[in-house]
Amino acid sequence: MATAFSAMAAVLREHPDLAVFLVVGLGSLLGSYKFRNLSLGIVTGSLFMGLLVGQLGIPVSAPAKQIVFSLFLLATGYTIGPQFLSALRGDGIKLLLLAVTQCFIGLIVALIVARVLDLDLGLSAGLMSGGLTQSAIIGTAGSAIMSLPLPLEQRELLVSHIAIADSLTYVFGTLGTIWFLSLLGPKLLRIDLRQSSLELEKEYGLADSQPGGALPGVQAFAHRTVLVVNPALAGARVIKVEKMLLPRFRLYVGRIRRDGQIHEASPGSILRLGDRIALSGRQEAVIEAISRIGEEVSDDEMLNVSVARVLVLVGASRSVGRSLRNLSMLGKGRGVFIRSLRRLGQEMPLLPETSLQRGDVVELIGRQDAVNGAAEHLGQAYTEGQHTDLRAVCLALFFGGLVGIPSMLVGSLSIGLGTSVGILLGGIALGWLHSVRPTFGSVPEAASFFMSSFGLAAFVGMTGMQAGPHFTAALREYGLGLLFGGMVVTLLPLLFGVLFGRYALRINPVLVLGACAGARVSTPALAAVQEQAQSSIAVLGYTAPYAVGQILLTFWGSLIISILA
């Protein structure tokens, strides 16, 4: 057994690239394990496995680390770019202000705790990374440390300390954020989270009689043939049937059979008793409408129409910022239904007052000609299997990195974005350009997800491998202090953010909780808030602060090193 272990260790030392794949693979396995619906996640799992495998003394390539980290930053910027710029309008300004304030408080608290505990540069950055649950800080802080005029051995030791401090503080950072926002936050705001969510849903157009809270992202649709029996509909126009269940539901009458002949229906078509109409809409809407119109009959020929499902990337200026209610009133919306709406990878609630933002991915369903017209009105058809525009990706990496190189002196302090933050901004620019001109800079969602998840997991895993040999000594010297310091860094910014958002900015309390989760870049915390609320409505406050948190917290990694150095 010992011989086999030694042989494997020798192989990994000789082929460190294989060690990286081992760390990410085992880290993903560890991170996917759930305890009461909680898991470490791929990134934290890879960090822990990196610390373990790093005990074998495996060398790590600095350029390889930077390459995978750059892929993560580019993909992250690409995803948040359209949402970030779209948020700079209307009520989104308050959410952005909340996010910026919470991020700044996080930086200030981390600096104070680092001074009180007398931590070195690496431990200070790791404290902030874990406490604020933003693993990208590991990369930007590490790059800043490696640019300092210090001996190489000392710089490498400081970089290893980032991973050590992060590993000690990240678990509470995640669990503490979940606990605070889903349980303690509502008590501080003096609200019943479930009831407040229901009230907010009503503001966004969900009727009192609609059961089950916010509408699910994916809708079930039905197409039925109905015999007109209700005398009140004799001589009525089709538009009366289509408006029958508004504002709760939309209906669509596509065809009419009269005297054995099938005719295409228009809003002005006149109905007669005995007509058969082809009715489409959400399943529960169609069932309710049938009971008001007459009775369902079997007529396959009436329903024999071409139905299409199309994904659309929202980018047309005429549609950005419009509510779903307003869009449904347009002529292009007749016969078309939105089946789902994704923003930053999150399913958004399909409520009448939910507005579209640039970069949203909308799934449309309906008659082929109507869907094509609606897709053109919203933006451009989005093909999940499209190819990555490698030219645009590499040029964004190059020019973004160049943007981050310059720095300026403020007194004795040298401040610059750094190549890492520059690449993040390059990704933001590329994502925004793609949303405006979809034929340029395409990165499929699957490719973006791989770049983001593997890039960060591999980077953090390699950082953990570097830190492995120093882990035990640092744990003995700083362990308890780091644990308590991390709790302070986690909780104080959340406390300030919740109170500031609610009582200074007067944002709806449910949206405040979603916004604080976004500013913390914590999807698990958002999920916990939604679970407690039994509603997905909090996600409306999450996306814009998420974009801000990704940018600022990533930049804080280099800034905290500049300040403390």
What keywords describe this structure?
565 residues; alpha+beta; 20 helices; 12 strands; elongated
Query: What percentage of amino acids are in beta strands?
Result: 5-15%
Output mean pLDDT. 83
Radius of gyration: 27 Å
Q: How many β-strand runs?
A: 12
Helical coverage, percent range: 55-70%
Distance between the termini: 47 Å
Query: Number of helical segments?
Result: 20
- How many strands, what sense, and barrel or not for the largest sheet? 5 strands, antiparallel
Q: Any low-confidence stretches, pLDDT <50, length ≥5?
A: 208-218
In short:
The protein is α+β, with helices and mostly antiparallel strands. The protein has helices spanning 2-14, 16-32, 42-53, 62-86, 92-117, 121-131, 136-146, 152-188, 193-203, 238-242, 283-293, 324-329, 368-378, 390-404, 418-436, 445-467, 471-504, 509-519, 523-533, 543-564, and strands spanning 221-228, 251-258, 261-264, 276-282, 294-297, 307-314, 336-343, 346-347, 361-367, 379-381, 407-410, 413-416. Strand 11 and strand 12 form a beta hairpin.
Model description:
Helices cover 59% and strands 12% of the residues. By secondary structure, it is of the alpha+beta class. The strands form three sheets. Strands 3-2-4-1-5 form a five-stranded antiparallel sheet. Strand 2 (251-258) and strand 3 form a beta hairpin. Helix 5 (92-117) packs antiparallel against helix 6, helix 14 (390-404) packs across helix 15 (418-436) and helix 18 (509-519) packs across helix 20. The two termini are 47 Å apart.
